[in-house]
Amino acid sequence: MGQSFQPPEVSLDIFDSVIGWFGVLYSGKTVLAIKLGFDDPGQLRQAFQEAGLSDVSSFEPMKQFRTQVRKYLAGEKVGFDSFEIYTAGMTAFQLAVTEACRNIPRGQVLTYGDLADKVGHAGAARAVGTVMKRNPFPMIVPCHRVVRSGGLGGFSTQGGVGTKRWLLELEGALSKVEKPLLDLLE
Description:
five-stranded mixed sheet
């Protein structure tokens, strides 16, 4: 007789921050998805449901992530490289872009084209942009550090490019993006 499949328990941690409400969906020690910048926890729960990520077994703090986010948002130099992310279903290209993005140091920016070059796909800036737009792990995969060659580019989290700008200012990286181009965004 075959064994029955027991799906892993999925937990959700929701907490407030200086840039709005955060939600981290995880199973064990693996992060499945992160959403950030919401005005209230109800909007955050709705966003997870709309993304098809609503099979939550419990609402429990992922204390290490919560602590790291709060330290980071307070200006401390902390990293998120110790967190495992759920990469099943990613193509080789998506995985390469995701891993390369994880290695962009705080205070640094790369253009979408630079990141494409880094993973051996010169000329694939738009494809890199698509991977960044769909990044389910903001903060752990710091897609805010990837910018257009002519300015900031987009940011697919709640709060959009304003949140991206805030994060880059926090890290001291905004000066590395040409100032006249940023003026066009205002």
